[in-house]
Amino acid sequence: MNLRLLNLxxxxxxxxxxxxxEHFTSRIDQDIVAFANSKGGKILLGITDNxxxxxxxxxNHLKSQIISLGRNCDPSISVSIKQVGNVVVLxxxxxxxxxYSCSSGYFKxxxxxxxxxxxxxxxxxxxxxxxxxxxxxxxxxxxxKDISKEKIKSFLRESHIQLGNINPKEILDxxxxxxxxxxxxxxxxxxxxxxxxxxxxxxMTLIAFKGNERVHIYDRKDIQDDLLIxxxxxxxxxxxxxxxxxxxKGVNRKDIYEIPxxxxxxxxxxxxxxxxxxxxxxxxxxxxxxxxxxxxxxGELPFVFNKHKIGTISIRRNELIADMFARMDKAERxxxxxxxxxxxxxxxxxxxxxIESDTFCRVTFKRSVKFKGSEKSSEKGxxxxxxxxxxxxxxxxxxxxxxxxxxxxxxxxxxxxxxSALKEEKKLKRIGPDKGGYWKV
Length: 441
Fold this sequence. Notes:
Elements: H1 3-12, E1 18-21, H2 28-37, E2 41-45, H3 60-71, E3 80-84, E4 87-92, E5 101-102, E6 105-110, E7 113-117, H4 119-128, H5 149-158, H6 168-174, E8 178-179, E9 182-183, H7 185-191, H8 195-198, E10 204-210, E11 216-223, H9 227-241, E12 244-249, E13 252-257, H10 261-274, E14 284-288, E15 292-298, H11 319-327, H12 337-347, E16 354-357, E17 360-366, H13 369-377, H14 379-395, H15 401-408, H16 412-424, E18 429-431, E19 438-440
Parallel strand pairs: 1-2, 10-14
Antiparallel strand pairs: 2-4, 3-4, 5-6, 6-7, 8-9, 10-11, 12-13, 14-15, 15-17, 16-17, 18-19
């Protein structure tokens, strides 16, 4: 640990393997146990919760207190202690004899939070996932030259972290995505230039069906890129195919979707986080049918689901991936995803999705009936809009979707939906790429 790495950890903020403490207290034994029960980590003494350096000095007395706390854990935990600048850094290794406890009980690290758990819960987790998780395994096929600096920059932007020079090895080390100069599978899933070259099954499939029989496909997209791109592409696809209405308040217009986007974002993030990436020949699926949206990922839930206990159980198959999504504010911390979905839907008086768990986990959202009714009543308006789009394209076959939206005073998504309908009716065709191509009526 040096000053450069310390400053990087402070800028990245608290997470799965980093905890800030303004001052030493004997309660840090809870954090020591939590790190030993999880992936290991660093406790930075002399840092406020918002990342400001308040300072802490390593004295012989303080060092003796910390060592005693580690020894009094059951089993005992060896903690490395070092003064770095004005901060005292405690490094806690991942334990080989899980579960560990301190005088206050059993604790585990979940995102940036130390959470108390019963011994039964801990034993259940470690029994089920005693093998090294797929995300933790070293990928022997990838080299540092295969890591994309642009993808690292995208992650830093999403996480609101400002850095000058980007050293991929330092970044991945600090996020626990590499070890001993080797890259873990989780690092491949986020930052490889071509993730599927090294992990064949890292794919998301987006499908829109006509009807409810899953037979007639009218739109499909296979995403074979990193997990952040998969997340964004899934949300774009859903926005394209779901019904939306607009409310105008004053001079502002607000788009309201039949299923709240916030709930869908949480469900997509959950699917990515909980997916079993070790299962070959599978894909995370997002399906849009006439009556539902189904999100399914390989791997059963790591607990028995009970909707009456939503928010009380926090178990992750992929803790590193969960930590990355939490840092980017793409998922709620401390495993409250299902509870957040429930709260969002209850606010809109919509039903909680159906959840099934076997070899796959499937979350099924019902599409809103009131939106279907409004869609039927506005069909005549849609026909008029499509006719206007055709007229505009006849005048200028190179016109862009954005330009059409501006002329018709519609959202880009609304225009894309009408264009998809025109393509399905074989009234419109795109010749060439999005940039440089043209429309043919």
